[in-house]
Amino acid sequence: MTYVDGFVLAVKKDRLDDYKALAEKAQGVWFEYGATGYVEAVADDVPYGELTSFPRAVQAQDDEVVIFSWITYPSRDVRDQCMKKVMEDERLKGDMATMPFDGKRMIYGGFTTIVEG
Fold first, then answer.
1. Tens-digit pLDDT profile for residues 27-38
2. Which of 15, 25, 30, 33 has a CA 20 to 30 Å removed from the CA of 89?
3. pLDDT digits (tens, 9 = 90+) for 54-94
4. In the predicted model, what is the mean pLDDT of residues 107-117?
5. DSSP state string for 15-70
6. CA–CA separation, 76 vs 55, rounded Å?
């Protein structure tokens, strides 16, 4: 069954084009190493909740937008192999100070699907 990596992060609104360019480059790398799907979505209807919400989860500021993304793989094994190669790929190495998002506020994790359509 499909394995999924999920991500939620905040991007400065004035850096959204930079983030999109990085995501487009990353998509190709992930596909090269075995991912079967790659989606990056920008928040459109995500209110700031009283207790929980996407913006709260990543401590989004007024000048930031929330990104929700996921990558799919045919299995956890393929994901683990893919992730190792991606993390070693020079095309995605960069200076954390120039990244278009704050990696310390990114939420991410791997998920085994239980219902799939």
1. 999 999 999 999
2. 15
3. 999 999 999 999 999 999 999 999 999 999 999 999 888 87
4. 96
5. GHHHHHHHHHHHHHHHHHTT-SEEEEEE-SS----SS--HHHHTT--TTEEEEEEE
6. 29
Q: Which residue reads 């993390």 in tokens? A: 87
Rounded CA separation 110/74 (Å): 13
Q: Which long-range contacts (CB under 8 A, 24 or more apart) does 94-100 make?
A: 99/22, 100/11, 100/12, 100/15, 100/16, 100/18, 100/19, 100/22
Hey, what are 107's tokens?
Answer: 């939420």
Beta bridge partners, 38, equal: 71
Tokens 């990353």, residue located? 26
Q: In sequence order, what are the residues at sequence separation of 6 or more whose Cβ sits closer than 8 angstroms to the Cβ of residue 106?
A: 7, 8, 9, 58
